[in-house]
Design brief:
151 residues, two-stranded parallel ribbon, 7 helices
């Protein structure tokens, strides 16, 4: 959700499709804690395919932040290895990476499962969610916490 402020600016000119990597948003799935690199790349490929089908006449720019930047780069490598006639290869025009340190992001991946498991399953109110975000160290800025933690 660090992307929230930037997406507000971008949406005036572009269609913005933002999604949370498993275990990071409001969507829950049985295998939410399965966060190995290959799974996250497959999730990203599925989301890109869905986005292209939803907006077939649009170009796609991929923006990855932190660990998402590392996954974005590896996803693009996988797309580049696909045959030239694959539609995704034709519509992806750029990849933008923000605040990623490859080694640090990938080293943190095994610990993400524990972070997700330690997160309370519910909160009594929005104030508690925001407070948890700040106190847990997941978010440092109160504005960002109010935007990102409710999800």
């Amino acid at each position: 959700m660090t992307f929230a402020s930037l997406s507000t600016f971008l949406r005036d000119k572009y269609t913005v499709v933002a999604w949370d990597i498993r275990g990071h948003g409001g969507h829950c799935r049985p295998d939410e804690t399965q966060m190995d690199q290959d799974t996250l790349i497959e999730d990203t490929l599925q989301m890109l395919d869905y986005t292209h089908k939803r907006y077939p006449d649009r170009s796609i720019l991929i923006l990855g932040h932190s660990m998402g930047g590392s996954i974005a780069i590896k996803t693009m490598a996988r797309i580049e290895a696909m045959p030239n006639d694959v539609e995704l290869k034709k519509v992806i025009k750029a990849i933008l990476i923000i605040d990623v340190v490859e080694g640090t992001a990938m080293e943190a991946l095994p610990f993400m499962e524990q972070i997700v498991k330690n997160r309370p399953p519910q909160f009594p109110d929005m104030r508690s969610v925001v407070k948890y975000g700040i106190q847990s160290g997941q978010v440092k800025d109160m504005k960002s916490a109010r935007v990102s933690m409710p999800a």
